[in-house]
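assembly run, all chains below
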Amino acid sequence: MNEIKKTYKNYVGGKYLRSESGKTFRIALKSEFYEVPLTSRKDVRDAVVAAKKGFTEWQKLTPYNRTQVLYRLSEMLEGNIETYQQILEDSGLSKSKAKEDTKQALDSLIWYAGIADKWEQMTGNLNPVAGEYFNISHQESLGIVFTLNSDENSLNQLLLNILPSLVTGCSVISFNGDNSIMALKLAEDINNSDLPAGALNILSGKFDQIIDDVSNHVEINAMAIYKQLPSTDKKIIRENASKSLKRIFINPPVSGLESLLPFIETKTVWHPKGR
Amino acid sequence: MNTWEYAESIESSSIVSIEKKYGIFFDGQFQSPNSKKYLKTISPSTEEVLSSVALGNQSDIDSAVESAKSGLKVWSKLSGTQRAKYLFKLARLIQERSREFAVLESLDGGKPIKESRDFDLPQVAANFFYFAGWADKLDISWNTKGLKPYGIVGQIIPWNFPLLMLSWKVAPALATGNVVILKPAESTPLTALLFAELCQEVGLPPGVFNLVTGDGTTGAALVQHPDVSKIAFTGSTAVGKYIQNETADRDIGLTLELGGKAANIVFNDAAIDQAVEGVVNGIFFNQGHVCCAGSRLVLQEDIHDEFVSKLEKRMQSLRVGNPLDKNTDIGAINSKEQLDKISSLVNEGIAEGGSIFQTDCDLPTDGYWFRPTLFTNAQPSYKISREEIFGPVLTTLTFRTPEEAIEISNNTEYGLSAGIWTEKGSKILWAADRLQAGVIWANTFNKFDPSSPFGGYKESGFGREGGRHGLLSYLKVQS
Amino acid sequence: MSLTKETKNTLSWSDTVELIDNLRVDEVGLKERVASLATRSIKKDSKLQALNYIVTMCDLTTLEGEDTEGKIGQMTAKAIRPDPSNIEVPSVAAVCVYPALVSKAKEMTKNSNVKVASVSSYFPSGQAPLESKILDTQFAIDQGADEIDIVINRKAFFEGDYRKMYDEIVALKEVCSSVHLKTILEVGELRTYENIKKASLISLAAGSDFIKTSTGKISDGSSREACYLMAKSVWDYKEVTGFKAGIKVAGGIRDSKDAIRYLVIVNEELGSDWLNPDYFRFGASSLVDDVLKQIKKLKTNAYQSGYYFPRG
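ok done. output:
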């Protein structure tokens, strides 16, 4: 019970990286220990740099291409589905529950893959303004989103914390605690997919060690908190966010079109109609 | 050669009757404030005291919240169609009394009657009409589940478009089933007080619309009240940040519509004469007291001289003076405080090396006034190029390539609006995609419509007002 | 009233090409500006001043097949003294007639300041060879016309032969070297605002002293939008050449309120230098009657009946 089965690394800018601090923490699965990086404040800053590049690259893809990339990811997940089921089982789920969760995870991925090139048709519209003007509200990605993922032992929940922001074209810094093994395992499939480097970055660690740095970082445009946090933490996040008016979403929806709404900016364009 | 001067054509103010003193409005009635304190509201064009209005304190906010709670009980039981009917009636009444409102707005705020009559009031009525119609269609407004009103909404509005901002806030909040506590700006409370009378007239259930006048301390008490579950604020970025910070320990809804420093980009292939008009309207509309004002003219270098020459000529024709004169283009600066702020920023602009042009017009002796002002030879690093002046002051920056125009335009913490002037369609769409701003006006500027969402990127705030998107500011997703 | 301008200026064809290259007008923005100018509230003394301007700027016009010397007699008498009951009301600027009636008009106005203008160049269509247009124009001048109103060659314009349109005006200007040349664009046929601006600039570059909206012979005569664009063209041309051209609006301007709105456009877009008959004219037949009523109303505070004023 003291053997270290594997040491995982963070996944940042398309690379597997140790924490620059060299620190790790242990997560026990079944009878084995895994080491995962204890993300430092510097690691967060590096992840933001990577996410900025990733945002540019992810934005260059057409919505159709984003659908393709995410569908391809689902194929890869499906190919490795037993590995995920094993992690879920090793973390305490029954075989049938694990199977059910991975099935739901694949369904979620398929749903989000398929909405990448449609959501704007549901959230944008032409506005019937008075006068000779063409007026359209269309949507853009908010930018760099930090997600604090749920600790739940669930591949489906993990994807539901990442995909809403990712599918709207944001680049994502996904931060994980107890569910880090699952998340860092997912990084391997992400790495083999066609997702541009930096579009999705996966970190593990203790949130209270980086809470200030993340919520103070001006280049992180939004934080989505999918985990239950004590009110003191929420207060810290919102107070820091107020310095640059960072968008803070505490326990936002995790399904349906409403799950995407926090991550879009509405841009309304006017133009006259004349000869 | 003789000149043709336009004789004064004054809109009569006899249509308005202003009380000596106003209380706060809750439980459907005007009541004396618990604070027992009052503020004077003056006319910025004459410095004449118009009235005294309550300076609401914590205890007055408490009264308003209690009133709102009982209002919510009634309001939440009404059907959407019943709510719609109240809003339609309000819209109709506003139309019927629009001249009275317009005069009052110009008296209290200093804006030209031409604008309060032809812009503010028609838009106010239009907002109530538009959102009235949504009240019974919320279930088909968005492809989402579980949208519910917040309950008690606190709304704090600015002094630049007092009644219009009231309508942007109150109409969608009531349509979506919320009840409202409104805090109007310290310097412009009168039209909101008249609106409260209209609420009585249409028989709006008591407690649905509550109004507490006052200053910043009144607003703070509203923001801090634990039973207020949503704050909608329009005003400065500094206060917006304060509100986000102040409400950090509560799970509360926020809509913040804050400052701006909009770029108005003119390419060399623009329709120049219309671009000049657009630039003038962009910055001199409402004395430049507009959060989305096109305060940075971003001009392609090869047309700089021609454009500036036309712009200066056009600026000379702007008539500054009595807001009630139907021929006034630019009225009074809203307050002494704002005038001092504008003057100080302009002086810094001169000290930093900007070339200043101001028009020759005569200014009245009493009241607060500022000449239409244009800075050329300004650099992106100058304070006048970066800070929101919120007055009739335009700063010019030049660019060589489209990419450079975008870089200059986005080089700001603000992201409320932007303008693009070019007759080349693909360049408009290219630029619109790259400008980080919530509203893009191409070959036009400062256009508004109840159906058109408005709101900022970056530090210009979050949330949208107007249109289908505006409904989401007052509905939360209940999982 | 002097018709001599500070400078006489024409542009070469190549300079003209440069001037009309890449003309851009945004219709919605243009209309918005013109509508905004229409909200000016002109009252009291400034209204009386405007009404007097309008009288002095009027070209009292009759251009009908049925025109006779008798009709011209009536009109010229009215032109000289529009309101016999009020000697403060000035004469109009000119009378405008067909070439065949110029000599009669000239005879009737010889003891007054009222000028005689004549239409020519196969007004109103202009569908004739240049030689004929020159003869038509020369005849009117020989009859004594002080001012000549020609029409642009819309056929050439719509066929894209701007050079031909320009050359014709240059040729007619040569004929008109000693008289005042007003060039009619017929804005209702040009239809788009870019066409109006283009035709304005070509006409100015070819040597027109004035540009004029319409013949008055089609239903879409003058419009305030056209006047605004012509004012912008006049300004742009002045910036290039230093030459101050004039504008004549004609076609459908029937009442004082409308006419005052035109004056506002000229006042705010060009300035008070243009507020005199050397630089701005109204071509009209019934406008003067309404202006006279309004002047009398301002003086007496009573609304007036048409029978107080003589027929034109």
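Strands of chain C lie at 58-61, 94-97, 115-119, 147-151, 180-184, 210-212, 246-250, 280-284.

The longest helix of chain C spans residues 224-241.

not gonna interpret more than that til we talk
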